[in-house]
Amino acid sequence: MTATLALFVAVLAELFPNGISHYAIGGLFVGLGVAVIYVGTGIPAGASTFLESTLSYGSNLSRFQQYRPSRDWRVVFTVGIVVGAAIYAVTVSPQDGLWTTEVQWWRLFLGGVLIGIGTRVGKGCTSGHGVCGVGSVSSASFVGVATFLFVAIGTAQLVQAVGVSP
What Pfam families does its record include (predicted)? Predict the structure, then answer.
């Protein structure tokens, strides 16, 4: 048993060289936020839905207008995600550098566009399917999450194999 535990600790140290606590704390906050939203509204929390509800402020398309009754609290949730990340960056991890990356702007933009298309094709985002859908034992979400993971792993392997760098 001790050897197994030592191996487990060694694997965790390799996978999470900066520690695992901030991931665990972040996961607890995500779970708490999702639970509060679901208990308070009966609506599963998914980030792509929150984006669509925000678009209802500036668009008259019917697909966005369905969110009018609940869009105010959805916008507060979305802003909370951004503000929470900013607070973390400023208070907990200032030594890591604020909002820096070596990735070229056009790659970030293209990645964002592809993610947006993927959320529409997949009928939801990773947070909606991964946190809420799997948590509610949705078979469609299990398939979605498995697809997200396999495509992400395959893409990462392909990008590494062809030598693409930021």
Answer: Sulf_transp
